[in-house]
Amino acid sequence: xxxxxxxxxxxxxxxxxxxxxxxxxxxxxxxxxxxxxxxxxxxxxxxxxxxxxxxxxxxxxxxxxxxxxxxxxxxxxxxxxxxxxxxxxxxxxxxxxxxxxxxxxxxxxxxxxxxxxxxxxxxxxxxxxxxxxxxxxxxxxxxx
Length: 144
Description:
alpha/beta; five-stranded parallel beta sheet; 7 helices; 5 strands; about 15% strand
């Protein structure tokens, strides 16, 4: 599974990367512009991102604009499959208004979050995720 994380807060970015690494290849970006470039670059290959974890408040292009750009790209490139977008925010008002969902986000994940929050989302995106995790060797069981 290919995962893109667009988050400007380094501790949150690191935490997400560490948790999501169990599920596949993680690409991390700290601003919206770089995130859109990474998305488009992967979408033009045979290995697009399966899921994007996207912060709302970012330097430069804000999260809602990133969602609009990605959804517009999907509409204008019919051969591309729709990427699942998880909106991240600690702004309660954002969740209450549903702005990200209206703009094309698939699910809202409030900050702070737990590993089980992420596990639930990944199970939704990839029903085989839990099974795959059980099969994946841990660092302590991998041969050296």
